Amino acid sequence: LLAAIPSCLSQQRPTVQLEADPFVSPGSVVKIRCNVQGVPRPVTTWKENGQPLLATDRIAFEDHGEFHLLVISNVQQTDSHRKFECHARNENGGAMAVRSFAVVSDGLAGGVAGQSPTVDLQGPTHVPAGVAATLLCIVQ
Questions:
Q1: CA 36 to CA 85: how far, in whole Å?
Q2: 33 with 69: CB under 8 angstroms?
Q3: Which is nearest to 72 in space by CA: 83, 60, 82, 80?
Q4: CATH for 2-111, among 3.90.470.10, 3.30.160.20, 2.60.40.10, 3.40.1360.10?
Q5: Consecutive 10-residue averages of pLDDT for the chain (140 residues)
Q6: DSSP letters of the chain?
Q7: pTM listed for this prediction
């Protein structure tokens, strides 16, 4: 019965979605989660400004199957607005997503009066390679 299913139905181009706190405190640990899907299972790599990101005493990588973590320890002000890229590729193509965060003074990372900020990211969830996408990010 499985032989009757076209092989193209079992193939899936990779998709990538990143999750991370938009604001962090100096000295804290940041975990950027990269959710990856695709058939066959995509190979996932981390980059910064298009260059491979290497493990250091502060940067580590964790592979959990359908998601991958970039773990940055002892976050410093110089980590603010660095653009971390998660790339996924299989025989059907590739996908990538970029995430950054802001390092803010203690007390500000939790938002106003200790409340976490609300971030609403609006825009397309899938964009073909080579096509521009516009996202609206509303932070309250």
A1: 13
A2: yes
A3: 60
A4: 2.60.40.10
A5: 57 94 94 96 95 97 95 96 96 96 72 57 69 69
A6: -GGGS-GGGG-EEEEEEEE--SEE-TT--EEEEEEEEEESPPEEEEEETTEE----SSEEEEE-SSEEEEEE-S--GGGTT--EEEEEEETTEEEEEEE--EE--TTTTT-GGGPPPPEEEES-S---TT-----EEEE-
A7: 0.70
Structure tokens that stand for 9 in this block: 């139905």
